[in-house]
Structure formats: structure tokens, C-alpha cells
Amino acid sequence: MIHRGVQYTVVATAEPDIWEWRYEFGDQVKTGRTQTRLAALAARRVKSKIDAALRATQTGSVTAANVADRLEMAKVSHSLT
Fold first, then answer.
1. pTM (2 decimals)?
2. pLDDT tens track for 21-53
3. Residues 62, 55: contact at Cβ < 8 Å?
4. Residue 47: which residues within 8 A CB-CB, separation 6 or more?
5. Which domain holds residue 9?
6. In contact, 23 and 10? CB cutoff 8 Å
7. Contacts of 65 (CB under 8 A, 6+ apart)
8. What 8-state DSSP symbol labels residue 81?
9. How many domains does the chain contain in total?
10. What angle do CA 51, 36, 48 make, to 5 degrees?
11. Residues of 17-26 as b/e, b for ≥16 C-beta within 10 angstroms?
């Protein structure tokens, strides 16, 4: 299935009411499990996670990798002066 251009899957597990989900966002693969009786609710939860990931990239959210890159750039720029 596709939500806002992001491909995702929701699959029932052998355990009752447990669903495994997976989506690819850029070069990252996110996976998880959710508990619900309804497949539609499991899909809705994955869509919410995708929406949050899209919002985070649009607002320029700071990740650990971004912080490390920024710190390294600050060190380089300060050493040049």
C-alpha cells in the first residue's frame, strides 16, 4: 500500500490481534508491531507514523546525525578563524 508516496505494509502475525508493519522512508526502513483487532486500525497507525516522519523532514527536525554533523562543522569553522 502507499500513503503520501511512502510504501508500507501491514501483516497479521501468528499472535491474535498483533500486526507487524513496515515502511521505507528515504534510505531508512522503519518496522514495528501494533495490537488491535482491526486491520484498518493497524494501517491507520502506520499512516500516522508516516505522517509524523514527513512532518519531521519538512520542519527540519534535528536528529542525532544532524547534531553530530553540525558540531563537526562548527569545529572546522572555528579552527579556520
1. 0.68
2. 999 988 889 999 999 999 999 999 999 999 999
3. no
4. 3, 8
5. 2-80
6. no
7. none
8. -
9. 1
10. 5
11. eebebebebe
